[in-house]
Amino acid sequence: MNINKQTGLLEGVDYQASPNQDERPDCDDILGIVIHSISLPPGEFGGGWINDLFLNQLDPSAHPYFEQIADLKVSAHALIRRDGEVVQYVPFHQRAWHAGESNWDGFNCCNDFTIGIELEGCDDQYFEQQQYEQLAELVIALCETYPKLNTQQIRGHSQIAPDRKTDPGPYFDWEKLYSFVNK
């Protein structure tokens, strides 16, 4: 996996430009990676609902749950689907709106200095092998591109927003991820 340093985009990956992004205070201060999980509707996989959410095109009448979230303005830098496909929504040097109210080792506003990666999944199911493989490749590429990052600077959304979030959940295998990134 390669990242174009000038554009902040992964090469050879579907890019869907989310309007839910803006400039970072300092694009050279990318210090961490936040792992999230998402499924829309909850517990269901596949389809284009995640794209629709991140592109502000989610139809609130398509599913009862969508009425609650259709007006959210959220994004992530990238999504890794169950089959390992990667979709990018925000260039890495831009600020994605993924962490919300959060704290990383005493620093608030985690969107300012982190990269948000969504895994298609939920708190009560295991993630797929190909998701771990793609995530590890992406983490390695990010660490090679952004010198202040390293493989020890990865947290779950639940770790930076413990009172609000539970993702990626107990079925995310941190040891498996670290075994891939530290080969």
CATH superfamily (homologous) name: Peptidoglycan recognition protein-like
Number of distinct helices: 5
List the secondary-structure elements in sequence, H or E.
EEEEEHHEEEEEEHEHH
CATH architecture classification: 3-Layer(aba) Sandwich
The portion of residues forming beta strands comes to 15-25%
* Spatial order of strands in the largest sheet: 3-7-6-11-5-12
**Main sheet attributes: strand count, strand direction, barrel closure:** 6 strands, mixed
List the helices and strands and how they pair.
Elements: E1 3-4, E2 9-10, E3 14-15, E4 21-23, E5 32-38, H1 49-54, H2 66-69, E6 78-80, E7 86-88, E8 94-96, E9 103-104, E10 107-108, E11 114-120, H3 129-145, E12 154-156, H4 157-160, H5 174-181
Parallel strand pairs: 3-7, 5-11, 5-12, 6-11
Antiparallel strand pairs: 1-2, 4-8, 6-7, 9-10
Describe the structure.
By secondary structure, this protein is of the alpha/beta class. The protein has one domain (13-181): Lysozyme-like. It is built from five helices and twelve strands. The protein has helices spanning 49-54, 66-69, 129-145, 157-160, 174-181; strands at residues 3-4, 9-10, 14-15, 21-23, 32-38, 78-80, 86-88, 94-96, 103-104, 107-108, 114-120, 154-156. It has a six-stranded mixed sheet with strand order 3-7-6-11-5-12. A two-stranded antiparallel sheet has the order 1-2. A hairpin with a 4-residue loop joins strand 1 (3-4) and strand 2. Helix 3 (129-145) packs across helix 5 (174-181).
